[in-house]
Amino acid sequence: MSTSPAVHNPLIDGLRALAVLAVVVFHIDAAWLPGGFTGVDMFFVISGFVISQALASRAAQPAGVLLLDFYRRRVLRLLPGLLVMLMATFILSALLIPRAWRNEQFDQTGWAALLGLSNVVLSGQQDSYFSPGAELNPFLHTWTLGVEEQFYLIFPLLFLVWLRGREHWWRARALLPVLTLLSLLWTGWQAQAAPTAAFYLLPSRFWELAAGALLYQWMQTRAGGRHANVVAAAGLALLVVGVWIAPHLPMPVPGVLATVVGTLLLLAGVSRQAGGDIARGLGWTPLVYLGRLSYALYLWHWPLLVLLRWTYGLQGAALWLYPLLLLVVSAASYHLVEQPLRHAGPLLRWAPMKTLASAVLLVALCGVGAWASVEYHERISLSVTRDSHAWQARRYPAWRPLEAVAAPNLEGRRLFVAGDSHAAAYRTMTSMVARQTGMEVHQSDQGGCSFVNLQRASPADCQSFIEQALSQIESEARPGDIVLLAALRMPELRGFDWAQQDDQKVYRNLLARQTTADAQAAHEEAERVLQRLQVLGVQVVIDAPLPLFKAGAYRCSDWFNRMNPACTGGLQMVRADLEMLRAPQMALLAELAARYPALTVWDPLPLLCGPDVCSAVEEGQPLFFDNDHLSGHGNRVLLPHFRQRLIDTVESSLLD
Q1: What does pTM read for this prediction?
Q2: Which residues does the chain have with pLDDT short of 50?
Q3: Which among 217, 212, 216 has a CA at the least distance from the CA of 261?
Q4: What is the model's pLDDT at position 224?
């Protein structure tokens, strides 16, 4: 085997271009190329092949020198462009993306990307790669870099075993094939048992990168390539098949099998730079150039898309200007960042350990910068949501002064707040009333897990939380304490294309979704909860369904996002429509209140709405944070009425 420097093959750049273009088109609009995400799998296979070439070209070096030189070259190749993209994305996100509960997940992904671990973080988050919410995470695409970087840590050692022992030790030849097979079998099982982990983590992606390496090893034992054109044509056909079938199959296996095999065949066909139409096509100069830009294109295509989704939206001129902007930014990254540092003579003359130590220091500095952009976002953000006092429903801070209110009947009592994320959205109000009256607040909330939602039974995966919260109330509540059960008790209006929908038809369909069985299940669940609370001698307060909106206020209140398609529905609702949507729940509440004397229904809707219209933002102040959760200001608007309701509830119970 030759140990001379690997010869650059422009046809492989053409393959990279196909891969990155497929990914970009898919991310712009999945309907345009539903299986375009398999371009990532093409990258994995190509990376395994090219890295093998690079290692083999330096096979004569001592093992330690070879490994350190490999890691240095990988750092110089990947790290500069990645760090520039990450820091720019952190800063632009702080400027243009409003802070919401999802931002913490975004931040975690970005910080993990600095360490090559974003795929691990994403595997533990609720959203999958294909979830609607995932398209708003500006760091989502870094999962593939995490997989590759983790592969690069272990693969050189495996390849070195093959290099040194392949001629005399059969185990050296068998090591990588066996690990590849085990990874493939593991992936097939995990795709069913834990699909998110199978999608993101290295053990279930190892076989794809290793497949490219195995192709390289196999080709070193075979001369020539008489049927290269036929092999390349078969590979191209399989890639087309893979793009078509992947969306309909479990991922990664069997979803990307056709793509991986097709990429292997194409690589085998063109890696010797054979002629033919396919080779000429892949060698087309513009395509080769895009292939050389492929890393930069991949780095920048996603954050630019996400920032557009958060601001003006993918529409009109923005949609057509995006490719030009992407090309300009990627070319600048390639020519001004990647290439100069990758080939910088002084850096290449440094000892590898010095380069690696400098890289660790640089990553640490970028980590501090990323932390600062998050920690001080309120000072640099261009969004009106930077005013967290108005927008965020947080526990009232102990350092902020608050006037006490004379309410002797409330002092010393406990207020238990239980429910879904809408219970959490009352934190400002409940913590303020506790400070004012001397009450003690106990909070139990979990997103998506409501108590007495009045529409249908709570999801099965919420039952353990509900039981835990009820058991806590039963063990800690004393007679005379108050329990606030808060929840989303209206059909959600998010997720509809309101520009294409007839409002009244949507409302009728939403009402029709609640079957008789759903209503009965909701009634029975409410009875079970109220019966358990009734024996404790506590007073129960249930909030009536609050207003909700077609668009989220935090996404649609800035000059740079009001025109976004996500804001088409607007931040106002006709009050009569909301009354219609909540009529079944109000009827059930009235029935329950008649059966349980300790139950009080608190209705905030009249306080948040005018006679005819409900607005998420009123006189420049947000009443709601998003489509249906209260803002901090909205909490303060409701505070006096809620406090008085608690006072009246306790006084009424004392008179009975």
Answers
A1: 0.91
A2: 1-4
A3: 212
A4: 60
